[in-house]
Backbone:
C-alpha cells in the first residue's frame, strides 16, 4: 500500500497576526511555524492504515527550505519518506498543480490532506486534486477504513454526517474527529534524521490569483457592561438597540 | 457572459446560503451588465422562486445520477452548465457541500478560485475579492486574473435581497457525466437544529459550565432566542460536546449576527473563530477575562446565577 499525505506549514495557533510593507506581507518576525494541525491528523490516519500492512506513507510539502524542521517532525511521527517541492506556495491552485504533477504516475492508493490550512483556510486542495487526477475527492472526513479496493469513509455534511464508500484511488481531507494526532517518540525522532527527504523542482504553473493586501478586523468600540442582577436589560438591548434578536 | 450560481438544497429546499449566493450573484451581474443563471441540481421545490432573489434564469438538472450528492457528478454537471451559459463569474456557497465541488469545478473550467469570500468583489482594473484568512484573525484582498472566476461565499456574509423579477426555468441535460465512484451508504442529519455555520444567533459555552450535564441551560437559552449551540475547544476535547460544535481556529469559523459566549475566557484561538460576529456578548465570572475586550456587551457574573434569569427574560420577551 502506498499513501501520499500533503502537509503545509503554518503559524502556531497562538500567533498574533500582523502585516508589513503597508499590509502587503505577513509579518513572520518571531512567529513559530508548525505542521498544520489537520495535516497531523491526515498523517496519523495514513500511518494507522499503512503500518499494519507494511505500506509506505510519503509526506509531501510545497514550500521552501525553511519548512524542513516541520517536515522532519512529520518523519518523526512515522512517515516513510518526504518530498519537498521547492517553490513558495502562492495559492491553493498552484499547490494542487504541483502535487498532482508529482502524484500522477506514482500509483498511490490514496491521498490525504488536512481539511484546510489554518493560515489561508482555502480548503480547496482536496477538490482541486480530485479533478486534476480524475479521482473521487471526499472532504472533511471523520472516519476512514480501507479494505481491498474499497474505502469506507464518514464525512461531515452541513448539519450532520454521512457514510460513503469509494473505490481506490481517492483523495480525502482530514477533519478533527478522524483520530488523535500521533506524538513522535524518541526512536521516531532519531530515525527521522536519516530518512530520505527529496527536493523536487516545481513545474511551471500559471497563477490564477495574487494576494494584494491584508487587513485586520476592526477593533470593537468597547464593551458595555450590564449588571449580573439585571440580565433582562441584556435581552432588551439585544432586541431594541443591537436589533439582533426578535 | 453570465454569472452562474450553484443553488444548493437541503431536503429539497433551497438553503438560506443559496439565497444569499443568488443575491450576491445579482449584485455582481449588475456591476458587469450581465445576467444571473441559477443552477438547481436534483429535486428542488420551486426553482422559479429563485427569481425573487435576483436569478434571471434557473437551469434545472434532473437525472438519476443526481439523486444523491456526489462531488464528482455534481461538479461535472454544474461545470457543463457554466460552459453552456458562458459563465464568467461562478458563485458557490462556502458550505461543506459547496466546498466539495468548488475545487473540482475550478479545474474543469480553468477558473481562478477564491474560497471563504466575505464581501462583494471590487471590480475595476482587477477583480478583487475579500476573503477571511488566518482562521478569522485577518482578511486578504485577492486579485483573480483568469477569465473565469469562481467564488465560494461564506454564509451570513451578505444580506438576502428581494427582487421583483421572475426567473425563466429550463431543464438542462448534462451529457457524458461519468458514473460516480462513490456511493452514499448512510446520512444522519441532526434534525430540528439550526446548522451552526448558517445560524444567525449562536449561544456558545466553555469550561465555565463545569460539566456536560449543565448544557440544558445553554440549550434552553438557545431555544428561547432561536439560536444554534456551540462550544470552546476544551469542551469538545473533553467530549462534553461533539466536535462539530467547536468554534475557533482549529474548529469552525462562524459569523453570526449575535454570538453569546458563556464561561469562555477568550483565548486567541477561540476569538479567531468568532471575531467576525456582528454583536458579541460575553458572560464570565472573571472580570479580567480577555474575551471582554472583544465584546459589545458583557456581564460579569456566575453563569449558574445569570443564565436562569436570562432564560426567563428571553422567554418573556418572545412571549410578548
Residues:
Amino acid at each position: 500500500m502506498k499513501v501520499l499525505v500533503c502537509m503545509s506549514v503554518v503559524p502556531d495557533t497562538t500567533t498574533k497576526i500582523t502585516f508589513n510593507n503597508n499590509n502587503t506581507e505577513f509579518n513572520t518576525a518571531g512567529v513559530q511555524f508548525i505542521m498544520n494541525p489537520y495535516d497531523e491528523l491526515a498523517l496519523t490516519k495514513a500511518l494507522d492504515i499503512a503500518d499494519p500492512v507494511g505500506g509506505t506513507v510519503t509526506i509531501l510539502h510545497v514550500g521552501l527550505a525553511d519548512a524542513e524542521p516541520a517536515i522532519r517532525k512529520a518523519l518523526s511521527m512515522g512517515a516513510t519518506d518526504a518530498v519537498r517541492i521547492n517553490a513558495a506556495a502562492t495559492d491553493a491552485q498552484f499547490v494542487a498543480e504541483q502535487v498532482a504533477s508529482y502524484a500522477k504516475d506514482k500509483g498511490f492508493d490514496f491521498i490525504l490532506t488536512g481539511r484546510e490550512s489554518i493560515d489561508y483556510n482555502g480548503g480547496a486542495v482536496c477538490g482541486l486534486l480530485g479533478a486534476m487526477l480524475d479521482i473521487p475527492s471526499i472532504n472533511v472526513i471523520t472516519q476512514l477504513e480501507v479494505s481491498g479496493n474499497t474505502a469506507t469513509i464518514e464525512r461531515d455534511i452541513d448539519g450532520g454526517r454521512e457514510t460513503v464508500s469509494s473505490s481506490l484511488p481517492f483523495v480525502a481531507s482530514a477533519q478533527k474527529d478522524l483520530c488523535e494526532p500521533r506524538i513522535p517518540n524518541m526512536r521516531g525522532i532519531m530515525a527521522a534524521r536519516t530518512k530520505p527527504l527529496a527536493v523536487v523542482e516545481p513545474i511551471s504553473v500559471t497563477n490564477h490569483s495574487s494576494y494584494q493586501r491584508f487587513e485586520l478586523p476592526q477593533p470593537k468600540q468597547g464593551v458595555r457592561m450590564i449588571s449580573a442582577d439585571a440580565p433582562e436589560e441584556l435581552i432588551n438591548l439585544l432586541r431594541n438597540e443591537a436589533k439582533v434578536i426578535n | 457572459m453570465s454569472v452562474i450560481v450553484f443553488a444548493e438544497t437541503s431536503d429539497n429546499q433551497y438553503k438560506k446560503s443559496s439565497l444569499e449566493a443568488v443575491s450576491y450573484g445579482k449584485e455582481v451581474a449588475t456591476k458587469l451588465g450581465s445576467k444571473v443563471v441559477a443552477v438547481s441540481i436534483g429535486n428542488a421545490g420551486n426553482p422559479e422562486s429563485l427569481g425573487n432573489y435576483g436569478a434571471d434564469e434557473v437551469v434545472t438538472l434532473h437525472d438519476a445520477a443526481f439523486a444523491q450528492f456526489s462531488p464528482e457528478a455534481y461538479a461535472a454537471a454544474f461545470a457543463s452548465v457554466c460552459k453552456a451559459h458562458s459563465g464568467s463569474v461562478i458563485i458557490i456557497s462556502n458550505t461543506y457541500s459547496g466546498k466539495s465541488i468548488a475545487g473540482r469545478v475550478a479545474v474543469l473550467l480553468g477558473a481562478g478560485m477564491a474560497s471563504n469570500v466575505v464581501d462583494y468583489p471590487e471590480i475595476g482594473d482587477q477583480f478583487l475579492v475579500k476573503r477571511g484568512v488566518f482562521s478569522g484573525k485577518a482578511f486578504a484582498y485577492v486579485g483573480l486574473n483568469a477569465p473565469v472566476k469562481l467564488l465560494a461565499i461564506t454564509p451570513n456574509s451578505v444580506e438576502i435581497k428581494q427582487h421583483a423579477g421572475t426567473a425563466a426555468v429550463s431543464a438542462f441535460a448534462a451529457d457524458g457525466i461519468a458514473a460516480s465512484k462513490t456511493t452514499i451508504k448512510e446520512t444522519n442529519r441532526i434534525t430540528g437544529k439550526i446548522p451552526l455555520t448558517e445560524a444567525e444567533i449562536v449561544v456558545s459555552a466553555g469550561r465555565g459550565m463545569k460539566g456536560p450535564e449543565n448544557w440544558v441551560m445553554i440549550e434552553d437559552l438557545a431555544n428561547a432566542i432561536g439560536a444554534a449551540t456551540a462550544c470552546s475547544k476544551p469542551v469538545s476535547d473533553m467530549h462534553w460536546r461533539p466536535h462539530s460544535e467547536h468554534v475557533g481556529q482549529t474548529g469552525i469559523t462562524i459569523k453570526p449576527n449575535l454570538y453569546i459566549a458563556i464561561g469562555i475566557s477568550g483565548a486567541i484561538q477561540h476569538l479567531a473563530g468568532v471575531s467576525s460576529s456582528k454583536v458579541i456578548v460575553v458572560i464570565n465570572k472573571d472580570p479580567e477575562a480577555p474575551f471582554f475586550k472583544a465584546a459589545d456587551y458583557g456581564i460579569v457574573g456566575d453563569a449558574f446565577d445569570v443564565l436562569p434569569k436570562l432564560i426567563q427574560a428571553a422567554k418573556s420577551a418572545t412571549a410578548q
